[in-house]
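[job 0412] stage=complex_fold ligand=LW2Y6JES status=START
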Amino acid sequence: MSNPQERAEVLLRQLVPDDASRSVGPDRQVTANFSSGSRAISSYERIHGQVSQDPIDWSTVETVATKQLTDVLYAKAEGIAKVTINRPEVRNAFRPETVEQMSTCMADARDDPDIGVVILTGTGTEAFCSGGDQSVRGPGGYVGADTIPRLNVLDLQMQMRRLPKPVIAMVAGYAVGGGHILHLVADLTIAADNAVFGQTGPKVGSFDAGYGSTAMARIIGQKKAREMWFLARLYSAQQALDMGLVNSVVPLAELENETVKWCREILRNSPTALRLLKSALNAAEDGHAGLQQLGGDATMLFYHSAEGNEGRQAYMEKRRPDFSKFKRLP
Ligand SMILES: CC(C)(COP(=O)(O)OP(=O)(O)OC[C@H]1O[C@@H](n2cnc3c(N)ncnc32)[C@H](O)[C@@H]1OP(=O)(O)O)[C@@H](O)C(=O)NCCC(=O)NCCSC(=O)CCC(=O)c1ccccc1C(=O)O
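[job 0412] stage=complex_fold status=DONE, emitting C-alpha cells
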C-alpha cells in the first residue's frame, strides 16, 4: 500500500460499520461522524456501542444501616474500648457480618473522645480468632446474609492501622489464619501462655499478600516470615515472644488484668504524642497511605495554631492575613 491516505481508508473500512458515515479528513485523520463528534471508532465501540448519556435517575438513601451486634461484644471502661469477637463455637472465626460489626465498633472507638486505647480479643480461652469462616467461603470471597462475596477483613486491617489510638490484641488460645493477621496489625499484642500463633492459609487455599506477609516480615524478619507462611506451622506463645511477634506473655488467668494495666499506663501519656508516633511508625512502611495519615495529623495540629487560625480568620473577615507575626523557626 503506497500512501498514508490509502492505508487510513482501508483501516476505516475494517473498523466502521457501513451505516456510519466515514471520511478521511483533510488532516488525514480517520474519522466517523457519530453524535459525539468526528473521531476514530475502536473495535471496542463497534461491539459495545456508546456509553449512555441519558439523564440519571437518583434514588435518595434516607438512612444507612445501624448495626445490631450479633457476632461481636463491645464494652467501654476508663477510656478503654474492648471489641470481642463472639463466635466461640467456631473458634471465633469471622464471617462478613463479624467483620462489619468489628469495623463499626472500631469507628465508634475512634470517634469517642473519651476512648484512648482499644483492646481486640475473642470470647473464651480457646481462641482469639481462627480467621475467615471457611463454611461461608465461596469462589469470590466470604458470603454473608446479603449474598455479596467479600474479603472485608482487609478493610478492617486498614482501619485498625489508621485508627489514631493504640490497638492492643489480647490473645488467648489460637490466633491463626486471618486471626493471626488481626493481631499482627494491632499495635501491641499481649498473649496468654496458652496462645498459639500461625498462618494456616496455604493449607486451606488462602493467603494474605498484604499486611499479613509484608508487615509480618518487618516484624519478625524475612526468613521467619517465609517460614511461617511456607510451612504453615503453629508456634507457642514463648516462640512468638522470642521472635518479636508479641510484646508479653502472661499466665492465662492474668491476661485481662495485665492488658488493662498496659492500657492504663498508655492512658497516662499524651494522646497526641501517641497519635503522631503511630502515624510516623506507619508512614515509614505504608507509602502514600502512611504519609497521608501523618499529613492529616500535621494539619490537625496546625488548625490548633494561631498561625493556622489567622489564615481562616482573615478569609472570614475578608481581609489580608497577617502572617508577619509568626516567626520562621530554624
Ligand atoms: C483453630 C483450630 C486450630 C482449633 O482447633 P481445635 O481447638 O481442635 O478446634 P476444632 O475442633 O478444629 O474447631 C471447633 C469448631 O470450630 C470450627 N472452626 C474452627 N475454625 C474455623 C474456621 N476458620 N472456619 C469455620 N469453622 C471453623 C471447626 O470446624 C469446629 O466445628 P465443628 O462443627 O465442631 O466440627 C482449628 O479449628 C483450625 O485449624 N481451624 C481452621 C483455621 C483456618 O484455616 N482458618 C482460615 C485461614 S484462611 C483465612 O483466615 C483468610 C482470611 C481472609 O478473609 C483473608 C482474605 C484475603 C486476604 C487476607 C485474608 C486474611 O487472612 O486476613
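Residues 218 and 242 are 15 Å apart (CA to CA).
[job 0412] exit 0
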